[in-house]
Design goal:
It is a single chain. By secondary structure, this protein is α+β, with helices and mostly antiparallel strands. The chain has two domains: about 140 residues, no CATH class; about 90 residues, no CATH class. About 25% of the residues lie in helices and about 40% in strands. The chain has six helices and twelve strands. A six-stranded antiparallel β-sheet has the order 1-2-3-4-12-11. Strands 5, 6, 7, 8, 9 and 10 form a six-stranded antiparallel β-sheet that branches.
Amino acid sequence: MWPLVTIAVVVIVLIAGFFVADAAARSYAQNRIATQLVSSLGLPTGTEVHVAIGGGPVLLQAVNGELTDVDVAIPRLAFGELRGSAVLHATQVPLDQGRPLGEFAVSYAVSEKDLAALASRLSGVELDSISLEHQQIMATATVPVLFLAVPISLGLSPSAQNGRLAFTPTSITVSGKAFTQSQLLADPVLGSIARPLLKQQSLCVAQYLPEALRLSSAKVVGAELVLGFSGGGAALGSSAFSTMGSCP
């Protein structure tokens, strides 16, 4: 009887020891990943980064030389003029930083209140308001035309174009009347305001990120402008993560 009790106690102690050791290894790995991300993405020291490792016990994953799933949340992150929050998902993250990652995807969300920073990119006239409605960026302005203050509403669709965040006019309303771009440009009275109104500028997002991360999508989801980035197949220790990108 006593030998069985002794064996049971030893097993329990070993199991408890494994879980304690695994918890310590998980904490170390999560802190290490957070530090590496701050360095790889060129983030300011002290940036709040939350890392969660999935895929079961970390010690068992370490035996295979890679972590199965890693999720990261960064509540406040700036890319040049953009301010937002980021969620990162990576798979097959090797312990050897010289080996390539599996999947590496980032979702970056800019809230409606933070869109004001993009005002100069949306139109060549001063805007009264910017909001997110019907999967579009809606901008309003009041433009003087023949001594009158004319209200204008402009609907813009965001898109990813060669590392740039671009904005394409999809709807134009002047004093409650809908126009196409060509109609507005051809109007004998309103044509004079059309060119500055429709003067959109793209934002080169790639210059603020490592070459490994590519802007792959841009869309309005609810009350947020959401940018998608992908970068699978690159190693965290490679030049693809140490060199910043650029736009053609």
